[in-house]
Structures are given as structure tokens and as C-alpha cells.
Amino acid sequence: MDAKAKLGLVSAILVAGFGALVFDRQVRIVRQVHAEETEACSDQTLVGRYAFTGQGFFTNSNTLPALTGAFAPAADVGVFVSDGQGKLSGSDTVSDGGQIIPRTFTGTYTVTSDCRGTVDLQFNSGIAVEVALVLDERGQEVRALQTNPQGAVFTVVARSVH
User: What is the pTM of this model?
Assistant: First the structure.
């Protein structure tokens, strides 16, 4: 393919891509991921039994941001039950650098009208963890990120199992 033909092909692809974006903005055929716009969230949006998986990395480094080599891989799987009034409890099994640890936890949470929130967890081992979260699909799905203690890059996705 000569240079002129390549330029024509690239131009056609760019025009088609731009056209698709404009069409999407006008017709809204592509689903967008966002917190619910039609209904406000509250503590009552997070109610019922949820199953979750988490993955990321932990570090014990006192220097943050920590170097990549200071992190150990981590993952967990578990369940929790939320009462819709700001309290939850559950259990999980975490792999922290390959060490398998079963745990139980209790916690409190707050969900704001824009479907974001915070959770304070207390594990049976004595560890306290703070988490930022967002609710999606009217509380059917929860996405979370550990915010404290710092030194973790750990995300969780939970799904309602009503």
C-alpha cells in the first residue's frame, strides 16, 4: 500500500470514529457507566448480602510512595451483610503475599446522595481499615478502594446476591 492509500485509510478511520462519537452523543446508544442520575443514594441503598473479590498490593514500607519492590501481592474473597442503616458485618479469606488468613469484620458506613461513601472496618485481628466506595446499578454493585492505613493499593468489587 503506497503512502497516499495509507493516508486515505487513516483519514477514513478517523472520520468514522469521530462520526460514531457524534452519533453516540446525539442518540445515546452507548451505555455510560456512572452513579445513578435519576435516584439519589443513601445508606438504605446499600442493603442485603454481597459477595466480593479484591486484589492489589500491600506494603509495610514507612516511606510513601513506596518503591515497586516493597509491595507484596494480595487478594481476598468474602461476603458481607449490610443493614441499610449504616452497619455491616462479614467474613473473608485474604492472601497477603501468599499467606492465607481467614478473617471476620464489622463496620459502619455512610453513603451520600451522589452514590459515593466511606466504610470503617474493624477486623477480628485488631486491624482497622478505611475504604472509599461508589455504588452502581442502584446498589447492586459496590466498587471500593482502601484509603487507610496507607501503603495499600487494594480494590474490591462486590455484587448483591439477594
Answer: 0.74
CA angle 44, 156, 126 (to 5 degrees): 85
Contact at 8 Å (CB) between 108 and 117?
A: no
The pairs formed by 85-91 with CB atoms below 8 angstroms and a separation of 24 or more are 85/43, 85/44, 86/43, 86/110, 88/46, 88/119
pLDDT per position as a tens digit, 45-91: 999 999 999 999 998 888 888 888 889 999 999 999 999 999 999 99
pLDDT of residue 63: 83
Domains of the chain by residue range: 1-32, 43-160
DSSP string, 30-83: S----S-SSS---GGGSEEEEEEEEEEEEE--SSSSPPGGGEEEEEEEEEEEEE
Q: Return the C-alpha cell found at 131.
A: 475504604
The closest alpha carbon to 105, from 81, 133, 83, 137, belongs to: 81
- H or E stretch at 10: helix 3-27
Cis peptide before 65 (omega within 30 of 0): yes
Single-letter amino acid, residue 73? P
Domain 43-160 belongs in CATH node 3.40.50.2300? no
